[in-house]
Design goal:
Blueprint: H1 8-29, H2 34-44, H3 48-62, H4 67-74, H5 79-91, H6 94-150
Helix pairs in contact: 1-2, 1-6, 2-3, 3-4, 4-5, 5-6
């Protein structure tokens, strides 16, 4: 459900994929096979939907499907990411490609969070202005009624 929230869902998904990519690269650089790295990294995934999808990817890779095709079947990453993974797989630098993906997603997350901040500030100002207006009016109404009762009528 979290991943389907309009703007924040994409941000959450990218954040989870950043974490996944960083852990995967760290394990792979320590000398563990790529499939074992993926299995171990899947255990760290916090989102159950993405965890299931990534486990299906591991099963596909174990059955002989290329890494890029296994990821492409799931549609969890954009086509640009698929071409990066495919190039990394063909060149033998899959760890560097996942690092590049994590860096790209990190830049996207930073940009998106800044855009959210830009959109939230005017809304915040309007809400705070409304709350202040309500407080001022709620203080003035009893004051006006008190002044009417205290002042003598001609």
């Amino acid at each position: 459900i979290k991943l389907k929230i309009p703007v924040f869902g994409n941000l959450i998904k990218k954040h989870l994929l950043i974490h996944y990519s960083r852990v995967l690269v760290t394990l792979f650089n320590s000398g563990i096979s790529f499939v074992s790295c993926m299995k171990n990294t899947n255990k760290t995934m916090k989102n159950t939907y993405l965890k299931k999808v990534l486990e299906n990817i591991v099963e596909d890779i174990e059955s002989g499907t290329p890494i890029a095709q296994a990821f492409e079947k799931t549609n969890i990453m954009p086509k640009k990411s698929m071409s990066i993974i495919e190039n990394g797989e063909e060149s033998g630098y899959i760890d560097e490609m996942f690092t590049e993906l994590a860096d790209d997603y990190e830049k996207d997350c930073i940009y998106t969070s800044r855009q959210i901040g830009i959109w939230v500030k005017p809304i915040y100002v309007v809400i705070m202005g409304t709350i202040c207006g309500i407080i001022i009016v709620s203080l003035l109404i009893p004051l006006v009624s008190l002044i009417k009762t205290v002042t003598p009528h001609p």
